[in-house]
Amino acid sequence: MTDAAKTTIDQSEVDRFSAMAAEWWDPTGKFKPLHKFNPVRLGYIRDRVSENFGRDPKGHLPLSGLRVLDIGCGGGLLSEPVARMGASVVGADPSEKNIRIAQTHAAETSVNVDYRAVTAEQLAEAGETFDVVLNMEVVEHVADVDFFMRTCGAMVKPGGLMFVATINRTFKARALAIFAAEHVLRWLPIGTHQYEKLVRPDEIETPLSAGGLDIIHRTGVFFNPLQDRWNLSPDMDVNYMLLGKKRS
User: Fold this and answer.
1) Rounded Cα–Cα distance for residues 200 and 238 (Å)
2) Residue 76's CB: how many other CB atoms inside 10 A?
């Protein structure tokens, strides 16, 4: 199948998240894990982007002047705080319900985000390019990982960055990120993740490398129940983040 005939969209996944769209901004609802995850991933994004582009991460609007794509933005939980750091943000999601929720919330909080109900391939075909692409908790929900990573990588400007956060396909992840999180702790609705769709780091790194991005940082992320928060960790067996930089 040619790339022109391919799609990154798994319609069952779009339908699943569309059905929960009204709950995106409820910190005690079905997206509670993402609300808790936001501080560690936002800190990681701010610090790594600042390092790459010579910014002060503690300064006022450290991402000012940078164009950022939040692909699979959902209700905008990541798009809004990144925009508040000064970035010009495009939030893209194939679910029109998610985009409407995101647009409504941004209007209520007076945050400027360019939300679009589009796919990654539609943006790439339109020639869109970005200094930073945020590919966070999305790759395990797409139909074709290789095509999705190539498509997203093509939109990164030379010298730019792509962040990828997802769940490893390991027995440890199946026990903790699926069984414990969905069936025991009830952090997530049952069926949010399917083990066979989880993605190993090499399955992300290979298409990114072929698309001209070098992996410059890797980190695991774990939840500390005593602190009630997520922290960075060298253990990538369950949740992890990769950072790729586009060759100049």
Assistant:
1) 10
2) 28
Q: Which residues pair with 165 in a beta bridge?
A: 136, 241
Each residue of 106-150: pLDDT tens digit?
999 999 999 999 999 999 999 999 999 999 999 998 989 999 999
Contact status, residue 33 vs residue 188, Cβ threshold 8 Å: yes
Cβ within 8 Å of residue 45, ≥6 positions away: 82, 132, 134, 163
Q: Report how far residue 92's alpha carbon sits from residue 89's, in angstroms, rounded to the nearest whole number.
A: 10
Strand partners for 218: 242
Q: What is the pLDDT of residues 48-98, one digit of tens each?
A: 999 999 999 999 999 999 999 999 999 999 999 999 999 999 999 999 999
The crossing angle, in degrees rounded to 10, of helices 201-210 and 145-154 is 40
DSSP calls for 63-132: TTT-EEEEET-TTTTTHHHHHHTT-EEEEE-S-HHHHHHHHHHHHHHT---EEE---HHHHHHTT--EEE
Q: Angle at the Cα of 67 (from 79 to 128), degrees rounded to 5?
A: 105
- Integer Cα distance of 20 and 30 in angstroms: 8
| Span 192-245, pLDDT tens digits | 667 888 999 999 999 999 999 999 999 999 988 788 888 999 999 999 999 999
- Separation between Cα atoms, residue 144 and residue 140, nearest integer Å: 10
Record the pTM.
Answer: 0.88
Count of residues in the chain: 248
Asked whether the beta carbons of 66 and 48 are under 8 A apart, the reply is no
